Structures are given as structure tokens and as C-alpha cells.
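Document type: protein sequence-to-structure record

Subject area: structural biology

Format: plain text, a pair of labelled lines:
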Amino acid sequence: MDNDALIDAFLLHLKTERRLSVNTLSAYGADLRRFSVFLEEHGIDAGKFTRPDLLDHLTALRDKGLSARSTARHVSTLRSFFRFLVREGALAASPVSGVKAPRLGRPLPKYLTLTQVDRLLAAPDGRTPEGIRDRAMLTIMYASGLRASEVVTLRLENVDANAGFLYVMGKGGKERVVPVADVALAVLAEYIASARQGFLGKRLSSDLFLSRRGKAITRQTLWNRIRRWALAAGIEQRISPHTLRHSFASHLLSGGADLRAVQAMLGHTDIATTQIYTHVTPERLRDVHRKHHPRA
């Protein structure tokens, strides 16, 4: 098999057998396109790739301005790719086994303060269908910590208002149950009873959050609406759907929530991923100082 055929077979494996998300597949594809270009430029077959070739490849990526974080992901992609080739019998051994990616310090997650969250949730205009929808989306995101991809794929049947849960299909096709407060469910119910039906008209759809055309909103629309209301709320920092997810987790843990429970709600496979939210917030530091310092 030629290089492109091997790469295509690997990507098909990731899609059909590992059932990775579209965004994750896109990241793998970008890494492998860079790798394919290197192989073509140097006349190398993937089956004859060596560790010295890897060093040359990573040096070239660095010279092209690839960040340390992207380089680390690239090395991880190549390890997975060559493990696949060995498993399929295309190679006897992986030329990159044991190669470690650059060590990276994990940055603290960006999150909103409680005051900023209040301002953001109050920003959408409740007199318009779009405003009602957007307030429901923002409220549900902060109440549940959903990823952007999980928000835009929510369906009516995923909402159990009586029990107070959302049934979410996360990464890798894994379903999880996330509790949602009554306040958030009330905002969602208002949207479903009013604006959502207006978006549908005479059409039928099970998608929860709809555009004006009655179709499920896109990730891009979700990003744009969040940025719009952040500006309206006077929030200067650049925020994204993940900022609300970070805020959800940070505020739960600051309030004393169990780390394992937060892990389950976020849908993290590895608890180490959840531990990035165990940072101490400035508000928590201030409260501790006031409570325990003798001259506070």
C-alpha cells in the first residue's frame, strides 16, 4: 500500500471502529497530512520510516512555526498510526515506539466569575425568539458543563425534566447522565414552549436548539452567539463554549463538589483531565484569608 492508502485506512479505522468525533478526526487528519507531505518531499515510504526521519520531520515542523503543544499532539498521532500498521501486519515494529512528546505545562482553565456568569445569562434579549433560545442555551451549558458538540446535537428526548436530567451522547459515542437544576430547566421549558415552536412553523424536528430556519444550530452559530452576548454583558475576555464548561467545573469544585462526581458529569475518561479544575480561585483564596487570618 502507498502512503496515502495507509493513512486513509487508519482514518477509516478511527472513524468506524474507535468512533472518534468529527473534530478529533479532523485533528488526526491535519497531522497526517503534514506527515504525508514530509514523506513525499523526502521520497520515503511510511513502511521504511525511521527515528532519524522522525527527528528531521519534527525539526521541519518546528522551523515552520508549529507550537510545542501541536508538536506533542503530532507525535501522539504518529504513535497511534504506526501502532495501527503493526497491528494490521503492515510493519513488524513501530519506528516511533517509546518516543516521548515534548513535556508541556498544563495551563489553568479560563473561567468566568459568578458575577460574570450572572451578567452573561441575563444578556440575551428575552423579548425575541433568538434571545429566548440563546438564554436557554447559555443557561443549560453553565448548568451542565456540556461541550459545544453536545449542545448542538441535543434532542428533545434527551431532556428528562421530571427527573431533572439530560442524557448526553459524548465523545466516542458514550452516553452519560447529567443533573440539571430546576432553574435551568424552567428557562429551557420557556424556550421549548415559545421560541422553538416559532422556529419550526409547520415542520417537525426533534433537535432541541434550532436556527430561524428550523434546523439544528451549528457549532459556529453557538460560538458567535456566545461572543455576542459576552460583549453585551461587558465581558472583555474572549470566551467560548468551553469557557462555560470550565466555569461549571471550577465553580462546582470551589463549592466543595466531589472530584469523581464532576468527572462523571463532564464525561472525562481519565480523572487527571478533571484535576485541572482543582485550581484555587481568587474568590476562594479571599474567603479563606478572611476566615482564618487574625487581622482580616
In short: The CA atoms of residues 290 and 296 lie 5 Å apart. The chain is about 55% helix and 5% strand. The first strand starts at residue 159 and ends at 160. Strands lie at 159-160, 165-169, 175-179.
